[in-house]
């Protein structure tokens, strides 16, 4: 079976989940935390956070969440009249091009308290120009603006069962796409990095991905020593390390996985650094326990690489959260001050990078729970010689 781009389509590809998330519960959780910020309500303008709270996926939107029993609202413009009714049917919709100003006006109209309403806004999402315009709005005189940072992101860090199921489905698509590519010998000398990357992306689309999670990394030879190398016309050659970092998107949720291969025959130094990275990754995975300090998780893997003499060639943190964004909280690194939370989905991705020679990274996406981490990616982690 082929699609309209003449790419093979898997007729057994799983359909995206149609289970509706508990958006009302998410808004209630956000509202419950507002008093700690000294706020009566919050206007959410980051589009990813709006989606998390409402299900709405349009390109212009803001959401208003109150404490107490006042009605929550969503604002968007007239292009999305039908879409907002379908995706956020439980919310009153305000149609306006300037969504934040429109919600600010509703706040001023609905507030009956003697003191000005204390309205939180996402200080990490609002620009200086937007804040200036907000302060100049006619209704701003009746509102006390309260800057809040990361309130929704804090909720997003812990995934519910539906979110984990979507991430796992995206991971499964990635696993299957990579396996298909390897099975037909598509990662081979003579092909370019760009050819392999684009073919892998279409394999993910053919299996039901709605998008790729980020620009696929295919890095061969010396390019594999660059952590975020972008694929070029460089030709894969016998003896190369080939690092492939990629992911799919399902229902808005991302996957992330890296595997590193050797073409033809592995030299001793390639086997050595691969073995060290594999040991480090196992140590990092084993350290994923709810309540564990993020810096200690990073250290568990980093100490393996440092003890082997390659500490200076491991140039990034151990991992990051994965969800509606490919990089979200928590960040697992040596400078992290928080602890790992039950229900987080994170990557574990140590690496060794030898400039001018090559590099190795092994990465999986895992769900964290009290019973132990569960890998959502399942491609083999042992060294594969292609």
Automatic annotation (TrEMBL):
List the PANTHER family. AMINOPEPTIDASE, CYTOPLASMIC PEPTIDASE PEPQ-RELATED
Name under which the protein is recorded: Xaa-Pro peptidase family protein
InterPro entries assigned: Creatin/AminoP/Spt16_N, Creatinase/aminopeptidase-like, Creatinase_N, Pept_M24, Pept_M24_MAP, Peptidase_M24B, Peptidase_M24B_aminopep-P_CS
Q: Which residues does the UniProt record annotate as the domain Peptidase M24?
A: 166-369
**Residue ranges occupied by any Creatinase N-terminal domain in the UniProt entry:** 26-158
- Recorded source organism is Gordonia caeni
Highest taxon in the source lineage: Bacteria
Q: Is Lipoprotein included in the keywords of this UniProt record?
A: no
Q: Keyword annotations for this protein? A: Hydrolase, Metal-binding
Family matches, as Pfam families? Creatinase_N (PF01321), Peptidase_M24 (PF00557)
């Amino acid at each position: 079976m082929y699609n309209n781009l003449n790419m093979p389509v898997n007729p057994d590809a799983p359909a995206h989940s149609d289970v509706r998330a508990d958006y009302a519960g998410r808004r209630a959780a956000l509202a419950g935390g507002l008093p700690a910020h000294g706020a009566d309500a919050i206007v959410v303008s980051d589009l990813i956070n709006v989606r998390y709270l409402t299900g709405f996926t349009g390109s212009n939107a803001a959401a208003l969440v109150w404490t107490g029993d006042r009605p929550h609202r969503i604002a968007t413009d007239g292009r999305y009249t039908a879409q907002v009714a379908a995706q956020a049917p439980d919310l009153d919709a305000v149609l306006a091009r300037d969504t934040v100003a429109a919600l600010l006006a509703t706040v001023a109209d609905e507030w009956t308290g003697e003191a000005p309403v204390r309205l939180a806004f996402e200080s990490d999402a609002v620009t200086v120009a937007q804040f200036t315009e907000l302060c100049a709005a006619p209704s701003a005189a009746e509102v006390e603006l309260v800057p809040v940072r990361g309130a929704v992101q804090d909720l997003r860090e812990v995934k519910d069962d539906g979110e984990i199921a979507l991430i796992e489905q995206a991971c499964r698509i990635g696993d299957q796409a990579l396996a298909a590519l390897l099975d037909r010998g598509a990662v081979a000398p003579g092909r370019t990095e760009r050819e392999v990357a684009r073919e892998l992306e279409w394999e993910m689309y053919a299996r039901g991905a709605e998008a790729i999670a980020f620009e696929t990394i295919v890095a061969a030879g010396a390019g594999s020593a660059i952590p975020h190398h972008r694929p070029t016309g460089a030709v894969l050659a016998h003896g190369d390390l080939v690092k492939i970092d990629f992911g799919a998107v399902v229902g808005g949720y991302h996957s992330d996985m890296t595997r590193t291969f050797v073409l033809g025959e592995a030299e001793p130094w390639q086997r050595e650094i691969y073995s060290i990275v594999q040991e480090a990754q196992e140590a990092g995975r084993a350290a994923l326990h709810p309540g564990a300090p993020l810096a200690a998780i990073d250290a568990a893997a980093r100490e393996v690489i440092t003890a082997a003499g390659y500490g200076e060639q491991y140039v990034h943190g151990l991992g990051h959260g994965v969800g509606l964004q490919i990089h979200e909280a928590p960040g697992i690194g040596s400078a992290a001050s928080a602890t790992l939370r039950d229900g987080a989905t994170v990557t574990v991705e140590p690496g060794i990078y030898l400039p001018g020679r090559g590099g190795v990274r092994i990465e999986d996406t895992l769900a964290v729970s009290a019973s132990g981490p569960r890998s959502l990616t399942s491609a083999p982690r042992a060294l594969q010689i292609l």
